[in-house]
Amino acid sequence: AAHIRSLEAGIRTLRHRLSLPVGVKGTKRAPGGYRSRGEWFHKSRRLKALEDRLTAAVADWRSGRVRVVRGGKRLLNTRHHLTEAGLSEEEWRERWEAERWFLAADGESGKRYGNETIRVTPEGRVSIKLPAPLAHLANSAHGRYTLTPTVGFAHRGVEWADRIEANRAVAYRIHYDTGRGRWYLTASWQKPAVRTVPLEAARAGGVIGVDTNADHFAAYRLDPHGNPVGEPHRFAYDLSGTAAHRDAQVRHALTRLLHWARRTGVTAIAIEDLDFSAEKTREKHGRRKRFRQLISGLPTGRLKARLVSMAAGHGLAIIAVDPAYTSMWGAQHWQKPLTTPHRRMSRHDAAGIAIGRRALGHPIRRRTTPPSHDRSDRVRHRTVQAAP
Asked: Could you tell me the domains of the chain?
């Protein structure tokens, strides 16, 4: 179908340009005529050739006939032009057989690590689900054959790890490179378009306010009126150790956060718009070495970009808010009222509520404009009351 659409588009363009007089200039929206009668003549022959190809392609499509050359049509035609290609018959044969030696499997969202046939773990272990006639060759449980070497992805490896941790579809292809004499595993997936939604639409289903800390995310769910719902949630991570360990810890925490957000049915996640890239120097914070180490370890800049990418795959919007006074005002107005014998509220949990209320457009304070004399409402009612 894609080949047919490509042919139809080419035919439309040729017919349009051939219908114009020779030498007519084009516009920004449409091309003009051809520059000479000789070019017009050659393009008219090109039009007839494309029309013949389209007729044959449509006939094959309607009859259900598919023409596939395993190894590639281009490499097949190279067999007749070995001298021009600089190949001997043995070299061409080796490349031809290598192109036909491959194993590919499309991904499946919801399956473990995004692919049931060719499964790659976050540690790089590759296992293949064998068909029933070959099940006796399995060296692992459930009819799987685990390869001895491990694999790694230098390009977009972080994005790949995010997808398999969320069990989102990843397609794999195992193929042989004759030039290097190596087997390669390639991964591919479709990147969801990160769409900008109206703020009111993002707020419609409530939000989850997330406070970013040095060792955990403190999250609290709020309804569209700004009222806290349920219990606070904390998603811990450990930023010590190697870069790979830190990256995996943040990825696991974000995955758990997104899964919880989908279960609650909210439409957006609110985070602080933090960036310490230019504010962690000694000139800015003096000799407070521990504090400078703390803000240097906070995953702020890359975290926001990663969260936006991962949330797009789950259909969630991200709202970045001003981080000013969220921890202080959250603790002042929300920590004590929500603390019960069965619920322990921390400053970070209260900060999550403050972040969520700011994302919803509500003030952080629960109630403002108190009466002038005492706590009763004799003089006037308090404003900014949250709806039930």
From this structure: 2-63 (no CATH), 101-188 (no CATH), 199-359 (3.30.420.140)
